[in-house]
UniProtKB/TrEMBL annotation:
Provenance organism: Gymnodraco acuticeps (Antarctic dragonfish)
Domain annotation Rho-GAP: ranges: 1-104
GO-annotated biological processes: signal transduction
Lineage per the UniProt record: Eukaryota, Metazoa, Chordata, Craniata, Vertebrata
Protein name: Rho GTPase-activating protein 12-like
Coiled-coil segments: none
């Protein structure tokens, strides 16, 4: 759904400072075309509702990130190390879910 340069994804995921990771992702999300931004915002809003019902559906924030990370965030060019990409994708999706209000708030 969202193609990010792999450097951007790695920088966001690897920053040791939590606030800096959130700000980096927020900056990237704001650079998206309006239609992509709005679709992403709507989808993550829905995924947060799924997580709210975690007692019934057993979907935690981490579970949703694992399922949707590789689908939602794809590197522009696939490399030989897909497993590394998946770890970063999952971390970023989890962070977006946890920081939804901060990232999508106006």
């Amino acid at each position: 759904m969202i193609h990010f340069d792999k450097c951007c994804v790695f920088c966001c995921a690897e920053s040791p400072d939590y606030k800096q990771r959130v700000q980096s992702i927020k900056d990237l999300v704001r650079q998206l075309p309006v239609c992509n931004h709005d679709t992403m915002q709507t989808l993550f809003k829905h995924l947060r509702k799924v997580i709210e019902h975690g007692e019934e559906n057993r979907m935690t924030t981490q579970s949703v990130a694992i399922v949707y990370g590789p689908t939602l965030l794809r590197p522009e060019q696939e490399t030989w190390n897909i497993a590394v990409h998946m770890v970063y994708q999952n971390q970023i999706v989890e962070l977006i879910l946890l920081e939804y209000e901060n990232i999508f708030g106006r």
